[in-house]
Design goal:
249 residues, alpha+beta, Jelly Rolls, 9-stranded antiparallel sheet, 6-stranded antiparallel sheet, 2 helices, 15 strands
Length: 249
């Protein structure tokens, strides 16, 4: 019986951590931060205050789950190459938009020219299942944006959205999130903006910015998984008590 109990405990634990292999990634877009399944953040404030961010700069997420590395490449949709980017903490910068007033921002604005230098490319040291952020163009009015989700060099999907930039500074900037429903396979993002200023600036030459990233640390068990494990172990304990009572009688 002890061997049986041990096998059942092992099986219960395996049922929590094991999942069937997915044939292809199924990624869904989320346009609101309410209820977004994140338990970790990548804070751009870790780069410094109002500093130039060299190519290859990186930030470790709050739990240490993953590291986001910033590189500046050519975005396949916007077609603009990146050079140098600036980190712009909202509490001490001149960004006049609708992020929260104290938000830490990562912009694609060149510290040398003050103009857009293309896409913001992010590479993660560990694949993630959920990632989200706010985005806004520097120019006021409607703008469009595009996000490529990558697994290494494989494009998992290309997603588009529309936002409106205003000067309310109230945290109402457009939110964009991705959920990989079949695994934690998102290892990179390419983020670009176009048709800014109500479409008057096709290449968004004044630039855009994103907020801190919301991500999910998949090494932390979900409540449902903990409930499943607890129920399984409870069943094992009940069976063991019945077996002991049967032997005593």
């Amino acid at each position: 019986m002890r061997r049986l109990v041990a096998v059942m405990i092992a099986s219960a634990a395996m049922a929590v951590v094991m999942a069937p292999a997915a044939k292809a990634d199924s990624i869904t877009v989320v346009k609101t931060s309410v209820g977004f399944p994140s338990n970790d953040t990548v804070n751009w404030g870790g780069l410094g205050v109002g500093v130039k961010v060299p190519d290859g700069s990186s930030v470790v997420s709050s739990t240490g789950f993953t590291t986001a590395t910033i590189t500046f490449g050519l975005h396949s949709t916007t077609g603009r190459a990146g050079q140098s980017f600036c980190e712009v903490p909202g509490s001490g910068c001149t960004w006049n938009g609708n992020f929260a007033a104290t938000a830490d921002l990562l912009s694609n604005i060149s510290s040398r020219t003050g103009k857009s230098q293309g896409a913001i490319d992010l590479t993660f040291s560990k694949g993630i299942a959920d990632v989200g952020f706010q985005i806004e163009s520097y120019e006021l009015g409607q703008f469009h944006y595009v996000v490529e989700a990558l697994d290494g060099n494989t494009v998992l999907g290309i997603f588009f959205g529309v936002g409106t930039s205003n000067s309310l500074n109230n945290g109402s900037a457009a939110f964009f999130g991705l959920e990989d429903l079949t695994g934690a396979d998102i290892t990179g993002l390419k983020i670009g903006a176009y048709k800014c200023g109500n479409g008057t600036n096709s290449n968004c030459t004044q630039g855009f910015a994103i907020s801190d990233l919301l991500v999910r640390d998949t090494t932390t068990p979900e409540p449902a998984s903990l409930l499943l494990l607890g129920s399984s172990l409870g069943l094992v304990a009940l069976l063991r008590r019945k077996f002991t009572a049967g032997r005593a009688s």
